[in-house]
Amino acid sequence: MRRLFTYLTTIFIALIMIAGCQQADNTSETNETATLSKLQVDQTKPYIGFAMDTLQDERWYRDKDYFETALHDLGANVKTLAANGVQEVQNQQVKLMIEEGIDVLVIIPADAEGAKEAVALAEAADIPVISYDKMVMNAAIDYYISFDNIKVGELQATAILNEVPEGDIAYVGGAPSDNNAHLFREGAMNVLQPKIDDGSINLVYDNFTEGWSPEVARDNFQSFLNDATVDAVIAANDGTAGGVIEALGDRRVPISGQDAELAAIQRIIDGTQTMTVYKSLENIANTAATSAYELAIGNTIETNQTVNNNLTDVPSILLDPVSVDVSNIDETVIQEGHIDPSDLTN
Ligand code: BGC
């Protein structure tokens, strides 16, 4: 019910935005100055559109802040719109930004496949597209800037196998509509499969989690626990890990995560979560902002690899993820300023 309400509210907001945009369009031919002030865009500066999937997990606010700050520092304008996980809304938001005259589109797809419509709109308007963190599949994007997401899954499974080299393991994946969720699982399976083949590990649970929702992860896992036991859990991110830990109640088993959220670092200190994966949000946001700026002023971006998105080999920059457990919190997330130690209790 709450999801339906959120969905309807999001559609309603998008419709209001589109109506506002159309209104601005109607006046554009008659009064250029009025149009400029309505669109609130200084056309003399590069203008970047940032189409975000969601602000649901803690990380995305930080991505947004770093990205916008970097572009402002470079002297560019930026508009960020988040789609609340609804692809139709994101497509409309991209349409709006194109009408406003963006020079470059940076997109975190709400749905890996569905976002190709938004990319097609940008392509038709000759606007370069950067896929940020999550790949838009089957679409003619120009660049992909993310992390080595297969390695994320490998780090998670390696840390969990260090704790539980034999036994019953559960895999709690991310949203099936997010290409990253498949890459994280692929990485985890690279490490698990040989142990499954030699019989030392039983994969007793293996499910994706709609919308990366912690509540969905909790409820799914609760149903599973009604008639099964488990020795360890590979959860694809800190949000889903939080849901599973709630479902486990007083039971403690090794469990992974990802994102180095404050709550997860606290759980690692408290002993309810084994590890997380730290990905420097400052690094990805600054890299994407600088790249978008360069494209906007007519330059190209240097990349050193390509990643296939089922349509084309996309020139890519993949940053390195870092495994964090209780032994290296200080020299990773604290030293890098990702976590403020005064926010933690011992
Ligand atoms: C991101 C993760 C994030 C998840 C849910 C993934 O695509 O790479 O960092 O936890 O989406 O938002």
TrEMBL record:
Domain of life: Bacteria
Signal peptide: 1-24
PROSITE patterns the record matches: PROKAR_LIPOPROTEIN (PS51257)
GO cellular component, as recorded: outer membrane-bounded periplasmic space
UniProt keyword list: Signal, Sugar transport, Transport
InterPro entries the UniProt entry points to: Bact_Solute-Bind_Prot2 (IPR050555), Peripla_BP_I (IPR028082), SBP_2_dom (IPR025997)
The Periplasmic binding protein domain, residue ranges: 48-299
Molecular function, one GO term: carbohydrate binding
Main location: other
UniProt-annotated location(s): Cell envelope
PANTHER family found in the cross-reference section: D-XYLOSE-BINDING PERIPLASMIC PROTEIN
UniProt-recorded name of the protein: Simple sugar transport system substrate-binding protein/D-xylose transport system substrate-binding protein
Organism, scientific name: Streptohalobacillus salinus
